[in-house]
Amino acid sequence: MKPSHQFCRPCSLAPRLVRHLRSIKILPLALLLMSPSLFAQDLGSDSHELVGDRPNSAGDATEVAVSLYVIDIDSIDDVKQRFSIDFFVNISWQDSRLALEESRRTGRNRTLNLDEIWSPRGLIVNDRGLNRQLPLVADIDDLGHVQYRQRFSGDLAVDLDLREFPFDTQRLPITIVSYQYSPDEVRFSLPTAISIDDRLSNADEWRYQMLEPEIGEFTIAAADVVRPQLTIVIEAQRNARYYLLTMLLPITLILFMAWTAFWLQPNIIPPRIGISTASIFSLIAFGFSIRLSLPPVAYLTKTDVFVIGSMLMVFLALGVAVIGSRWANSDRMAQALRLNAIARWVYVALFIAVAAATAII
Asked: Has residue 156 been placed in a domain?
């Protein structure tokens, strides 16, 4: 989608150029480089078909239509902020300069290299390694309607908002910009054919669906550049069941392992302290493993809130165990037992509060 154009010098320079090329014996190469002008005659329209000006350059903006079909989304990398995608795109526009005279119309499309005709100079802004799988050619019908089809696969950048992790929903954009023309010269129309493979709507880790495309402007303020932009958005909803089973459920079990210390007699010191310290070390290990699966962001996710709240609860359990043990060894057993009884219910109430905070923050 980044075609370049090569055009020959004015005809007045041709004799001098030919003499020079003959002198260095590369005339065959020169004829090859100037061969696009030969294709113009084969199209059956006027001699201005291959110039860099857009169709109807003195009139309204050239309308460019885009349709897209998402074949597959392999993965979303939370740490690298990338998603791997495979999609098919069809870009079309009208160029009356490529229309054939009625006597020469056959009803069959012609195929030309994309660098032999005008194109809207498309660019995918968040491209981080897309590969083209089809030739850089366009199909043109007898009336000058141009269609460029391409299949892309590779990585696109995405700015993930992980505050709700693992209950988050992400927007995966495919941002297309005409990098050479202003909004007054090229205008994207709302796509009429945007779809996604049905299998992706019921994927295991994510559920995908297409959102309404967005037409806007891509602005580089420092360079005072404004370009037309079309953003096709895929909504991805994370399946939280995996994280509930592999992260949140084990942390909950660790919390209630620490809770069992309140059911032991205060004077049984080693088991009470051992349960509390083992719970702390287990939570620290879980916290590190969760953070390795996420990028270093400046805000707390819901999982971070749950882990931090859980650590505070386990430290509270350790503190109650130490205090109760000291009271039991200083002839204050009744107070130690009362502290144990109160801590059992306070601990459960704190767990409910942490779980509720995780759900609303």
From this structure: yes
Q: How far is CA 331 from CA 241, 268, 273, 334, 340, in A?
A: 49, 14, 20, 8, 16
Same-domain status, 88 and 222: yes
Question: Where residue 98 sits, what CATH number does that domain have?
Answer: 2.70.170.10
DSSP H helices, the chain, are: 14-23, 27-33, 36-42, 241-243, 249-259, 269-292, 302-329, 333-360
Residue whose token pair is 């119309």: 105
Statement to judge: residues 182 and 221 lie in one domain: yes
Q: Domain check: are 219 and 323 in the same one?
A: no
Task: Give the list of residues 6+ apart from residue 340 with CB closer than 8 angstroms, or none.
Answer: 262, 263, 266, 320, 324
In whole angstroms, give the CA distance from residue 156 to residue 255: 40
Q: Where a domain ends, among 200, 216, 238?
A: 238
pLDDT by residue, tens only, the chain of 361 residues: 444 443 333 444 344 433 443 443 333 322 222 233 223 333 333 444 444 688 888 889 999 999 999 999 999 999 999 999 999 999 999 999 899 998 888 889 999 999 889 999 999 999 999 999 999 999 999 999 999 999 999 999 999 999 999 999 999 999 999 999 999 999 999 877 889 888 776 667 899 999 999 999 999 878 789 999 999 999 999 988 888 888 888 999 999 999 999 999 888 888 888 998 999 998 888 888 888 888 888 899 998 899 999 999 999 999 999 999 889 888 889 999 999 999 999 999 999 999 888 875 5
The structure tokens listed for 262 are 């309140």
Which SS3 state, helix, strand or coil, does residue 63 take? strand
Torsion of CA 30, 36, 42, 45, to 10 degrees: -130
Q: Which two tokens stand for residue 279?
A: 């719970």
CATH number, residue 298: 1.20.58.390
Count: domains in the chain: 2
